Amino acid sequence: MPNPSDSQRYLVCVAWPYASGDRHLGHVAGAYLPPDIFARYQRLRGNEVRMVSGSDTHGTPVTVAAAHEGVSNADIVAYYHARFVQAFKELGLSFDLFTHTDTENHWNVTHELFLNHLENGYLYRDTQSQPFCLIDQRFLADRYIEGICPVCGYPDARGDQCDNCGNIYDATELKSPRCKICGQSQIEVRETEHFFFDLGKTSPDLADWLNDGNKDHWRQAVFNYAKQQAESGELRGRAITRDIDWGISIPVEGYEDKVIYVWYDAVQGYLSATREVCALEGRPDAWKDWWLDPAVRSLYFIGKDNIPFHTIIWPAMLIADGRGLNLPYDVPANEYLNIEDKKISTSRRWSIDLPDFLSRYDPDPLRYALTINAPETRDVNFTWDEFVRRNNDELVATWGNLANRVLGFAYKRFDGRVPQPGEFDEIDRALLAESEAAFDRVGEELDAVRLKIALSKAMELAHSANRYLNEKAPWTQYKEDPAAAATTIYVALQVIDRLKVLLNPFLPFTSQQLHAYLGFDGDIFGDLYTEDVTDARGTRPVLRYDGANLQASWQPATLPPGQALRPPAPLFTKLDEEIVGEERERLRAKLSAAA
Length: 595
Hints:
By secondary structure, this protein is α/β, with parallel strands linked by helices. It has helices at about 25-45, 60-70, 75-90, 105-120, 205-210, 220-230, 260-265, 270-280, 285-290, 305-320, 355-360, 365-370, 385-415, 425-445, 450-470, 475-480, 480-500, 510-515, 580-595; strands at about 10-15, 50-55, 95-100, 125-135, 140, 145-150, 155-160, 175-180, 185-195, 240, 240, 250, 260, 295-300, 335-340, 380, 525-535, 540-545.
């Protein structure tokens, strides 16, 4: 087990969602649940963690949503940001800070990097051909235009990136382009001047970084893509300003009618959020400890559509800044989650939104289902019958039943206390040894961000404990030899107490419940709370986490004999199979309404 004095610092960077619509289960599986599991585990290891993200308040997804709803951009941002904060709290996502990008701090950081890039020779002015809508008489930013992907032929490709194949391109390359504002195809290409980031100038440094011999832990698909791009010789200047009025101002005179383009400012949120959380902690300069110390490991949790921005563009921006800011240690990007055998589509309303899901079901079963079938190396499928099966057969029947029947038997037969064991036999010792070894076995997978395998290995111990109980049959032992039953129940309780820790990163709510049933008064969940923060740009709610009083640690503790237990209750609720049909009908109704 690790030595606490040798603690590692982890900066856990989580993709910034556009404040333009609720997050769905695909977002959760791909980018939001994995970093929480990783962060919770590292905290249990005694490592120092900062998990940061926030709502992306700029860009045309926000303005399109505002226009559709007939409200201001600020109103859309306020509405969806608050919903993100609430839903992420209900799901138990332990952000040290979830903020947003329309803050004085973020504007300052963006201006700072812009000026550093300009001074270091990585920004230049040039004209760009950009789509112009003849109906609306305006230039069309990327999200205001859609058409046929020039690479794969997908008919509803966005202006800057295809959701189907993931390739990025210029909006002028779209085939049969149409304006998302008026829906018409009366578009022509006009010239407009912008600032460009010289991505090609960073190619040698990107290639050196990717070939530094320290990328063996990267997922192969992510590494191969980044390496190919860096060495392709095809990286070129990319416009970082746009002819719109919603965004961060350009800190150069003469460009008051343009703003900084969202792709350039949003990725800087990882840096600005780190600064913000350090300031909220009363140590405003401590952000340097996270960004200038090369020993810090920064991991970026994203979906595969964001791989170009986090393996090429953001590292290039960090290099061009010139201060030696840390480059990503890992980018464990996930593949896609499909729903009932269909690709998720928010425009067609084929999705399961997180707030809607949590209005009917508990968070831990969702966390379990999305992890045990995680899209780590390939696209996977979420179905309601699979969700019900995993809840009922794996959480209720395997893990929940194990904990409930052992705790219930102990509470009833041993005066509500952990029984005093006798001498352990070979079977007892084997299960206890397996539970000790599980910390290394599961921890190795968590360190490598192989969360699906890690959860499977933890559940293997639960299966072993069930087999142990079936073999020992303490309910029969008790009638003939209460002392032997006491030993069996003690061993089972000891393993359950260890499973409580092993499953804590995945199932934090029920692990906390189990912690209390076992007679402990402390906290193994942490304090997840919201607060309002005010600066020159206004007041916003933020989500924060405080794990200072965590009682558990990632090691096999010994349960004290004689400890008073609390009356147990089931950790999970068995679901009626009828909900499968009900939920599928709900999906079909959404699809019909969008048609």
